[in-house]
Amino acid sequence: MDEVVASAPGKVVLFGEHAVVYGHPAIAASIAQRTTVTLRTTEEPGVHIGRARVDFERHPHLATMIAHLWDETASPGLDLSVTSDVPRGAGLGSSAAFAVASAVALRAAGGRAVDAGTGAWLEGYASDGSEVALFHGGHDVRRNAEVGERRFGQDALSLEEASLLGHVAEAMSQDGRASPMDTLTSAYGGLVLLSNRLEREDAWIMRRTMPMGDAVRSWELHRLEGLHFEEGLSLVVGHTGINAPTTNMVAGVAARRTEETGIDETMDTIGALVHRGMEALLAGDAEGVGRAMTENHLLLRRLGVSHPALETLVSAALPTSLGAKLTGAGGGGCMIALTQDPKATSEAIELAGGRTWITSFGTPGARLEACPKGGLINPK
Ligand code: PMV
User: Fold this and answer.
1) Which of 17, 129, 159, 362 is the most buried (most CB within 10 A)?
2) What is the reported pTM?
3) Cα(330) to centroid(ligand 1), Å
4) pLDDT tens by residue, 122-143
5) Ligand 1 atom at minimum distance from 178 CA
6) Residue 249 sits in which domain range?
7) 170 C-alpha to center of ligand 1: Å?
8) Are residue 191 and residue 265 in the same domain, yes or no?
9) Are residues 251 and 150 in the same domain?
């Protein structure tokens, strides 16, 4: 049977959560846990999940992807299925992984028209958010062979497009407020750094702008590549089992900024620490990275976003690891530990009541796993 399969990873925040909301940089890393989306053609027109037509209220991310990447009236019917080992509601970027994997699968299946001579896109989405001629000369380029050559599968893919559409999908389902951190990490994999300014010319990949309420926010997006750590360095993710919505945690920090003194200074210290963490990462100094993580945790505690269950898991992890901290919004959710002995660290966290996952450092980003030569429009 013809099918298209794409997968994308979840993420953890190594440094800088919360302070990133106030313009400081943050560094995130992809994890080994992935979400996989499979598309198969069906007789029924439209896109279905488990035989039912996709309910756009229940699946806002998918609604955005279909609206941008799949012509439901002219393309074959699709059945979409999802498997994932990224836990949901734990701050590990499960919705971003789903959005990015869906974007990759739909683009590979539907293909992309390109200029036969130059290979330039005749349709698609670029990082300034502008649409590049989805319809060309009044004809849908997907059907019009003369306009350009249509490429499918790997040849139609763009990580930039997948991360951009993923970000748009997150913003659409979160009242317009979403940072590009999760979707960028899921699309590109490895380590990504975002900031409101250019941090390192050699690591910069693009500027992303997105309207948010009355303002337009912009981020400078970077990738930290070529990292060299000794074999055997792992991250252990520990889940408290407590679900704390990110919006509430961000609102709590905003309130404390006006009620308490020293919060902005703590943010500044976190900003400086992110730079220190970045230097340690680039130098392959695992102990320096671990120390900066633990310091970041103490500063996050000062912002009021830790939780007794997070403290228990971080304390349990520290004796066998190089450093540990909460990851993401806090108030529950997950913590991470950098360790050379993942088995011991994972056992210690589990004994303290956490559920654990082990991941290596810098796992691959979004990936097309399978696709017929002509996608699902024109399978060969
Ligand atoms: O819990 P997560 O992974 O959604 O992370 C939230 C990170 C914050 O810095 C707290 C919020 C944000 O939008 O960056």
Assistant:
1) 17
2) 0.92
3) 9
4) 888 887 666 665 544 434 445 5
5) 13
6) 234-359
7) 12
8) no
9) no
